[in-house]
Amino acid sequence: MAPVSSGFCSRQEILYAVAEGLARGNWDGPTAGGWHERTLRLRHLVEQARSAIGWSRESMRGNHRGRGPRGVSPPGRTYDDALAVLDHVAVHLAGVTRTVWEIAGHHDEAERPGPRITRPYADFLHHAGRTIGLYGRTRFAETDPEPGLPETLHEAAEELRQSLEELHHRLPGTVRDTPGTLATHGALLAHARRLADHSPRSDSGDGDTGSDITSRPAAVTGPASGTAGCPAQWW
Predict the structure, then answer these.
(1) Is residue 128 pLDDT above 70, yes or no?
(2) Residue 110 burial (CB < 10 Å; 0-12/13-18/19+)?
(3) How would residue 65 be classed by pLDDT, with cut points 50, 70 and 90?
(4) CATH 1.20.58.220 assigned to 2-197
(5) Which of 13, 113, 206, 220 could form a Cys-Cys staple with 81, CB 3.0–4.6 A?
(6) Which of 156, 124, 160 is nearest to 137 (CA)?
(7) Segment 42-51, tens digit of pLDDT
């Protein structure tokens, strides 16, 4: 379904944009503010997808042909799980972009993280974006997923977990012992942990929902059609 699949692509696009900006040092105040504004608009996509699913369910309930043995089942928990992932990722991604925006607005260079911090953080965001994009392609593609895509998703989820561990290992040794920097970097780590916790993962599925990330739902009919393409990796 287009609103669901485009929701995952939109999150991937923003994660890639922030990761690229941090890795290349291109994250001034206006740029970071633009990332945050884009993130805040993601909640609208969640509501759009939720409305489409509700429309489909109501339409199928009113269609007696959908109740027969050969009828089409209304969208089930798989879509509810996906909406939960989209919603949680939007919330925690907004925390990331808000913190980056606040840091970018500081005129004190001592408060601004250097490459030893921004590069591993960018690496984590890249892995998060790749995992979320692959999840959308695996679960909500209009055609059968490419061969090996579910396995690639599992590998990406594991790489995301490893990058978070690396982030927790590397950041403490790079932070100046001042209240401002400790608060800033503590916030970045906290948002990273929450983002990873609610991203699709290989051990139990859709964030905290416990679903199998490789199963695919039946198609949902609704007012919208088509599937947005996700961006290619930039590094």
Answers:
(1) yes
(2) exposed
(3) low
(4) yes
(5) 206
(6) 156
(7) 877 777 777 7
